[in-house]
């Protein structure tokens, strides 16, 4: 598919090779706090919204939920290039927006103000902007719109819904936390749990212990993240990854660990919570982003100030 009609190449930053890079697409409402502007759009329409953005084009937007995550990815790029200036396996960030280019000047100016290395700004008038994700080789899509996220997941792109919140995560190193079932892994065990209860799920896991769990919607992104992480020794890596799962370690942890080993996906730390709240552990880890399919876990993460992204399994 052709590039969107209004793609602005950011000449301030060196362009990445999308065939080698880990391409992350974020919507404007994911990376910046545009809640007031979005409310204006809903109440008074597109023309008034564009007028407001044009009038405030030199006023930087405040950071949004995914802002610190993008900053930390940028830090990883810096560390990679310090060790190998010719390296092409970098993070590549693009902004995808349903807004017109006329209202997008403020977005570009805001990115420039914060020194964000956004390679492209895509202003798409189509109702479904996710049709352009594959042409840009996007490996992760973050949006504040559930329909966009579901469309991306249907297209086979790792995607999650971010909720606007105040974020003060430190910038380094990049820390990413994943839930297990229905996120990194498929929801096969969840289905057994719903049909047969906890005892049935544990019996299923014991019977299937030697068989890797199916792939979940975030597996592809996690594998690309792991590929970048392997460029460094564990001690020097600017990336740390975590598994924070409701599974119990005693009864259901072995299969999860064996699956990660089978995939060749190294995880720095794994927490088997046995159904306990995840908030306290997440508060200790302080990830730049936490992916989970349970809204109660997302709420728990938000309660302790952790940027979180919901991976809906009910699209």
Automatic annotation (TrEMBL):
What are the record's GO terms for cellular component?
cytosol
Pfam families in UniProt: 5-nucleotidase (PF06189)
InterPro entries cross-referenced by the UniProt entry: 5-nucleotidase
Q: What is this protein called?
A: 5'-nucleotidase
User: What GO biological process terms does the UniProt entry carry, in alphabetical order?
Assistant: adenosine metabolic process; nucleotide metabolic process
Gene Ontology MF term list = 5'-nucleotidase activity; magnesium ion binding; nucleotide binding
């Amino acid at each position: 598919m052709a590039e969107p009609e209004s793609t602005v190449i950011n000449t301030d930053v060196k362009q990445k090779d999308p065939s080698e890079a880990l391409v992350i697409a974020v919507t404007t409402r994911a990376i910046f706090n545009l809640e007031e502007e979005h409310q204006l759009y809903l109440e008074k329409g597109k023309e008034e919204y564009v007028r407001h953005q044009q009038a405030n084009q030199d006023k930087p937007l405040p950071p949004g939920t995914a802002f610190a995550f993008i900053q930390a990815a940028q830090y990883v790029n810096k560390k990679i290039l310090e060790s190998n200036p010719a390296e092409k396996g970098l993070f590549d960030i693009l902004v995808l927006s349903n807004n017109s280019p006329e209202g997008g000047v403020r977005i570009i100016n805001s990115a420039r103000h914060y020194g964000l290395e956004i390679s492209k700004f895509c202003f798409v008038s189509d109702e479904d902007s996710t049709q352009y994700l594959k042409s840009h080789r996007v490996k992760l899509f973050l949006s504040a719109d559930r329909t966009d996220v579901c469309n991306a997941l249907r297209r086979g792109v790792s995607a999650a819904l971010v909720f606007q919140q105040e974020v003060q995560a430190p910038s380094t190193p990049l820390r990413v936390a994943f839930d297990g079932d229905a996120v990194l892994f498929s929801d096969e065990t969840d289905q057994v749990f719903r049909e047969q209860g906890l005892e049935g799920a544990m019996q299923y896991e014991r019977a299937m212990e030697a068989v890797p769990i199916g792939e979940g919607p975030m597996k592809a992104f996690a594998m690309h993240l792991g590929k970048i992480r392997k460029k460094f020794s564990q001690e020097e890596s600017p990336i740390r990854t975590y598994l924070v799962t409701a599974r119990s370690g005693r009864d259901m942890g072995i299969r999860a660990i064996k699956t990660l080993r089978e995939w060749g996906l190294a995880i720095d730390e794994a927490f088997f919570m046995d159904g306990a709240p995840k908030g306290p552990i997440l508060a200790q880890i302080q990830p730049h982003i936490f992916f989970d399919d349970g809204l109660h876990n997302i709420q728990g993460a938000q309660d302790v100030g952790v940027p979180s992204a919901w991976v809906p399994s009910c699209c």
